[in-house]
Design a protein that fits this description.
The protein is built from 7 helices and 9 strands. The chain starts with 16 loop residues before the first helix and ends in a 33-residue tail after the last helix. The strands form 3 sheets. It has a 4-stranded antiparallel sheet with strand order 2-3-7-6, covered by helices on one side. α4 packs antiparallel against α6 and α6 packs antiparallel against α7. With 347 residues, the chain is of the alpha+beta class. The protein folds into 3 domains: 114 residues, Orthogonal Bundle (Butyryl-Coa Dehydrogenase, subunit A, domain 1); 107 residues, Butyryl-CoA Dehydrogenase, subunit A, domain 2 (Beta Barrel); 94 residues, Butyryl-CoA Dehydrogenase, subunit A, domain 3, CATH 1.20.140. Bound molecules: flavin-adenine dinucleotide. The site of flavin-adenine dinucleotide has 17 residues, from β1 and β3. The site of flavin-adenine dinucleotide (FAD) has 17 residues, from β1 and β3.
Length: 347
């Protein structure tokens, strides 16, 4: 039997029934809902925020977390969802990554019980949108140089916080109901929950992007924003907080990039079998076949790697950093804030 040109290595057989169901459900949703509209959203440079509840109904928002209305899915299922979303458009995978891995994850992992109850169920349903504010105009790869700062408005732990600074390139910023903002304090870098509408907090969308156009990218401006003491994430201090979130998001990006690659491959394959030159489809020429072969080999290698990472993650054996023998130690939760890690990938 000839190999399936869409699954040369029969990777489908490596997935269990639940994983295939997630994959097929998201793929069908993308075909029915994303593909018909993406040309228009891309041209206009907008993300259709009205689709957030549908993403919530599918269980895709914070789907790899547990409790608080989240789906509690496996890492592999989450990865497959990212792959299928990004096969439709990178903006959709990005929106879901930012919501689940960069906004819900820090609340879920480091938030107080009250913060979790207030935000996570609504975010899982897509009724509230989150964003993650780490990058600044002068602090990109090097977030340790951030200038956004928070100080206490008075003495004691119950005093309000005053936050000032600006964040740049923030996905979902202009449509977010809640911003997770990282700021330096006299007690290390800390995370703050800043709801839309808080006095002194505003956003400005960035337009004319060349890529990721169906995605809202914004500047966050914090001008002496006064927050209650309960707005700080109580259970993390230092850069390990935001960097652990980025590790979560990067896992989804590994899968997502394979979705983009698959869409490119399928489009090239379709063109090569329908476009005729010199009396036959251009896919009939060996030089074209060589290009398609290279594409499918790289694609399947990437999916295998993503799947391996997912199995490790589901097994509790994934590591975001080199092991303890290295200068930088252990898991994200043990990254010292004095280290100089970078944040080189998009969200
Ligand atoms: C569409 C989009 C969405 C984004 N969404 C978010 C978001 O939601 N939240 C958020 O906080 N941020 C977000 N970002 C910001 C993103 O994470 C930053 O762009 C990233 O951290 C890099 O920072 P920079 O753009 O300032 O580049 P710079 O830090 O100025 O780097 C410029 C170049 O130098 C290279 N470089 C830097 N340091 C080193 C080094 N030590 N060694 C080798 N090369 C190096 C980089 O790889 C890069 O190629 C987004 C960015 C984009 C474009």
């Amino acid at each position: 039997m000839a190999p399936d040109p869409h699954d040369f290595l029969a990777l489908d057989s490596l997935l269990n029934g639940e994983e295939r169901l997630v994959r097929d459900t998201v793929r069908a949703w993308v075909v029915d809902t994303v593909l018909p509209g993406i040309g228009d959203w891309y041209e206009r440079g907008v993300f259709p925020r009205e689709l957030f509840p549908a993403l919530g109904e599918l269980g895709l928002l914070g789907m790899h977390l547990n409790g608080y209305g989240t789906a509690g899915a496996s890492a592999v299922s989450y990865g497959l969802a990212c792959l299928e979303l990004e096969a439709g458009d990178s903006g959709f995978r990005s929106a879901v990554s930012v919501q689940g891995s960069l906004s819900m994850f820090p609340i879920w992992k480091y938030g107080s019980e009250a913060q979790k109850e207030e935000w996570l169920p609504r975010m899982a349903r897509g009724e509230a949108i989150g964003c993650f504010g780490l990058t600044e105009p002068d602090a990109g790869s090097d977030p340790s140089s951030m200038r956004t700062a928070a100080r206490r408005a008075g003495p004691g732990d119950e005093a309000d916080w005053i936050v000032s600074g600006s964040k740049m390139w923030i996905t979902n910023g202009g449509i977010a109901d809640i911003a997770v903002v990282w700021a330096r304090t006299d007690d290390d870098i800390r995370g703050f929950l800043v709801p839309r509408g808080t006095a002194g907090f505003s956003t400005r969308d960035m337009h004319h992007k060349l890529s990721l156009r169906a995605s809202v990218t914004s500047e966050l401006i914090l001008d002496e924003v006064r927050l209650p003491s309960s707005a700080v994430l109580p259970d993390v201090r230092g850069l390990k907080g935001p960097l652990s979130c980025l590790s979560e998001a990067r896992y989804g990006i590994v899968w997502g990039s394979m979705g983009a690659a698959r869409a490119r491959y399928e489009s090239a394959l379709d063109y090569a079998t329908t476009r005729r030159q010199f009396g036959r489809p251009i896919g009939g020429f060996q030089l074209t076949q060589r290009k398609l072969t290279d594409m499918v080999v790289e694609l399947e290698k990437g999916v295998l790697l993503a799947l391996h990472l997912g199995r490790l993650k589901d097994d509790g054996r994934s590591r975001a950093r080199p092991g303890p023998s290295s200068a930088r130690t252990g898991s994200p939760s043990s990254i010292p804030s004095s280290a100089t890690p970078t944040t080189s990938s998009r969200c």
